[in-house]
């Protein structure tokens, strides 16, 4: 095998590290995006039995956003196996206990329940904030695009710029704002 | 054979029992335990196996097609189009490649595959497919001959 072909072989089967910023992202929708990179579905050499998946680092998992009232209504079920060992944990409770758990479970359940799933999950690294170990960050060569842009909040815009925003209506001087 | 009476018809049924069973045992030769030694158990398993091979012939084709589609999906998304656009564009250009050869091209000839996806993208854009409206027109494609004739 010539040196060129050797390089091609290396390039084809190389394991790429991706990074994904979970700030203000829906974990259940981004799970389907991250799953593709973890399983190697984005490569033309994909085969369910060969190991062609990549590593994904998810940062800022503390800042995820759930749709509607899912923080209050989404329930995580766990059973210890003993009698009366069932527990139901609300999403906000789970998130306050472990801010990486919701996105981890979302990605786990987005994949099919094959024997490969647990090994695929080992290639996923989730961090509640942006403190990623340096040796991990050195490997990263691609950033996965967020599903939706992080919106600007009004209070984050400085006052001078806020004043420049054109006003559609002028409230009467005696109008009571809440 | 000529059957003069009903009695003779019953007696002359099929080949000899030993040879009839031997046919089945030959098919069950690689089974384990009583499945290969006892006829009544062997024939049940042989029947099941034959049914499964019949089904398996179709399943194999379906599985391969699914694999090629998954691979092509990954390959086309690298070039910002989807598998549907690729197939539609190539069909409209009268480039009649099947999924198997497209997937092989994507693995072994990535640059050829990129050209094909560019052609498909350009054709789809000229055909007014909304899905690729935001893609930029590939620069490597000669557009002149690609425009659909009015019909």
From TrEMBL, chain A:
Belongs to the universal ribosomal protein uL13 family. This is 39S ribosomal protein L13, mitochondrial. Signal peptide: none annotated. InterPro entries: Ribosomal_uL13 (IPR005822), Ribosomal_uL13_bac-type (IPR005823), Ribosomal_uL13_sf (IPR036899). The keyword Chloroplast does not apply. The keyword rRNA-binding does not apply. Keywords: Ribonucleoprotein, Ribosomal protein. One of its GO terms (cellular component) is mitochondrial large ribosomal subunit. GO terms for biological process: negative regulation of translation; translation. It comes from Frieseomelitta varia. GO terms for molecular function: mRNA binding; structural constituent of ribosome.
TrEMBL record, chain B:
Signal peptide: none annotated. It comes from the Eukaryota. InterPro entries: Ribosomal_bL20 (IPR005813), Ribosomal_protein_bL20_C (IPR035566). GO terms for biological process: translation. Keywords: Ribonucleoprotein, Ribosomal protein. One of its GO terms (molecular function) is rRNA binding. GO terms for cellular component: ribonucleoprotein complex; ribosome. Pfam families: Ribosomal_L20. Belongs to the bacterial ribosomal protein bL20 family. PANTHER family: 39S RIBOSOMAL PROTEIN L20. This is Large ribosomal subunit protein bL20m. It comes from Frieseomelitta varia.
